[in-house]
Each structure stands twice: as C-alpha cells, then as structure tokens.
Design goal:
The protein is of the alpha+beta class. The chain is 25% helix and 28% strand. It has an eight-stranded antiparallel beta barrel with strand order 1-2-3-4-5-6-7-8.
Length: 253
C-alpha cells in the first residue's frame, strides 16, 4: 500500500504560506504560474495558502523545486525559557498567561467589505499563547484575499480594559482595538488599516469589526458574504452592535 503523505503542523504550514506569499510578491508572478511550475492544481495552492488545508511534505517539496528556495526551517535548538516566564513584555501590558487565558481561542471575524458596500467580509482568527514571545499572538486564515492575511502580537493593558491586535510588518502597521464581553466572549471594536487600490495606491481606512467565538456560529461562512447567505443577518447584527451600543465611535468630518 502507498505510504500516506505526511502533513506538516499548523505552525509549519503558516510559516511556509507566509514565505511563499513573500516570494510571489517579490518575483511578481501569479499563483497560477507557480501552480503550473510546481505541477499542482491552482485549487490546491489556494487552499494551502489560505489556511484551509495543511501543507504536505510532497506539496512543499514541489514548491521548493519550483521556487528554488528552501521553505522548511531547519530544526531549531530547544527554545530557552523566556526571560519573563509567562508574563508578557511591558509594551504589551505585562499580563500573565493565566490572566488572559480567557481570550485564547478561535473566532469568526466579521467587518464590512471594502469592495462591496452591501457585503460583509468574514475570516477566521486564532489567538493563542506563544511561549517564545511570552505573549498572546493572533493569526488570520480563511481569507479570500490570502495575500493580506494578518498576524502579530496581542496587547492587553490594564488601564483601558481594551485588547489590541497589532500587525507590524517592516514598520507598516494594522491596529485592531476591541472590547470583550466577559460572559459570552464576543469582541467588538474598530480596525484601522490600509485599503489597497490600483497599482501602488494605499489609502487609510477604518471600519467596525467583531470577533465571534466560533462555537456561536453553527456553520460559519468565510470570504465575501452577500445578503443571500444564511449567516448574513447574524453577521450584520453583530457589526451593528459595534456602533449601536457603542463599542466604537465614528465621528463625521
């Protein structure tokens, strides 16, 4: 019988997907071209880059040959215990892991679509403890625009009572500020980022955003969610709650 193809871990898959997206952007090649070079279907490539399927060893080797680069990091020496133990750096709020364990989990994330005023954009966000960084980190997946997938650190300062999800890529920031309901677990707030336009045009943009514990949505829909989708009404209700209660304010110019 043929030996089953080895699946890589979730962390390895995320690292490989990030490297591939950087190579695609740097070389200015299309995903279709890369799929053809690696002798993979475009559907398979899209799924592994979008986090909908883990990378396998065979798929990774094909992509390494196609790109001419190593996508797998060599085994690292055991990570030394962080200086702060299980306490985050002061710049993130100096919180202990035990104090923020209730934030860890998987969320359905919803915000308005930037390209269609009547649609909602939905994707998955995982928040977990990173022992090496000694802090909470977040990572998005199931994004229709996988090239813009965000990941970064989570700050939880005592003073404001809010949670900050911060992406910092070479000095370019995306900031999400949310408040979390203690019992039900939803988080509501505002995202400030850049809207990609034609060519190299980037425009600052802000919008309401909501994080719903994945157990709240029986059969979550990801990507661009239109009015005829079964989850549209629920997603829209949570987005409106962000501004109706209000968890975030948008002032007129």
């Amino acid at each position: 019988m043929p030996t089953p193809d080895k699946q890589l871990s979730a962390e390895q898959s995320r690292q490989i997907a990030d490297t591939i997206r950087e190579e695609i952007a740097r070389r200015r090649i299309s995903r279709q071209s890369l799929a053809e070079l690696a002798k993979l279907s475009l559907s398979t490539l899209e799924k592994v880059l979008g986090g909908r399927r883990p990378f396998t060893l065979a798929t990774t080797v094909r992509l390494e040959h196609a790109l001419g680069v190593s996508l797998r990091k060599p085994p690292e020496a055991p990570v030394a215990a962080a200086v702060n133990g299980e306490v985050a750096p002061d710049g993130l709020g100096a919180y202990s892991r035990r104090a923020v364990a209730w934030i860890e989990g998987t969320y359905v994330t919803v915000r308005p679509s930037f390209g269609d005023k009547d649609a909602i954009f939905a994707y998955r966000t995982e928040i977990s403890w990173d022992a090496a960084a000694s802090s909470l980190v977040f990572h998005e997946s199931e994004r229709q625009d996988a090239a813009f997938t965000q990941f970064g650190e989570v700050a939880v300062p005592n003073q404001s009572g809010h949670i900050y999800l911060v992406t910092n890529r070479h000095g370019q920031h995306c900031l999400i500020t949310v408040a979390r309901l203690a019992i039900s677990g939803e988080m509501y707030g505002i995202i400030t980022t850049l809207l990609a336009g034609r060519g190299s045009l980037l425009t600052p943009i802000a919008a309401p955003i909501a994080y719903l514990p994945i157990k709240m949505v029986a059969d979550p829909t990801f990507g661009r969610v239109s009015v005829d989708d079964p989850n549209y009404a629920q997603y829209r209700q949570h987005l409106r709650r962000t501004t109706d209660e209000p968890f975030a304010l948008f002032l007129p110019g």
